[in-house]
Design a protein that fits this description.
Elements lengths: L2 E5 L2 E4 L4 E8 L8 E6 L6 E6 L6 E3 L7 E6 L4 E6 L8 E7 L19 E2 L3 E6 L1
Parallel strand pairs: 2-11
Antiparallel strand pairs: 1-3, 3-8, 4-5, 4-9, 5-6, 7-8, 9-10, 9-11
Length: about 130
């Protein structure tokens, strides 16, 4: 069993930055596909970013390209989401997710909630205008 815990959320002004971290416990997430999703009030949970553990494959939602970067910290067994140039529309609860798969044969699977087996409890990000 894998437990994921997100941290790093908070309140930031538009144009600012935040760095979210996802810590895993239960087992090492070696070779796991890791994803970040978010859910704004009244909206469905949506894809933000995903990467293979090695980093050889990385995907971002179109609205996050160039602003968000997903990376990993081997020493801490964490996957981080660096968010720059934040906008009020980025306000949401951000969730970390992990898959039992090393790689998806189709890129479409990286974007799907159902592709991920483990989820964190979420961390709130609020961007003020």
């Amino acid at each position: 069993q894998v437990t994921l815990v997100e941290s790093g959320g908070g309140l930031v002004q538009a144009g600012g930055s935040l760095r979210l971290s996802c810590a895993a416990s239960g087992r090492t997430l070696s070779d796991s596909i890791m994803g970040w999703f978010r859910q704004a009030p009244g909206k469905e949970r949506e894809f933000v970013a995903a990467r293979t553990w090695s980093g050889s494959t990385t995907y971002y939602a179109d609205s996050m390209k160039g602003r968000f970067t997903v990376s990993r910290d081997n020493a801490k067994n964490t996957v981080d989401l660096q968010m720059d140039n934040l906008k009020p529309e980025d306000t949401a609860v951000y969730y970390c997710a992990a898959s039992d798969f090393v790689r998806f044969y189709s890129s479409a699977y990286y974007f799907r909630l159902t592709s991920y087996n483990y989820w964190g409890q979420g961390t709130q990000v609020t961007v003020s205008s």
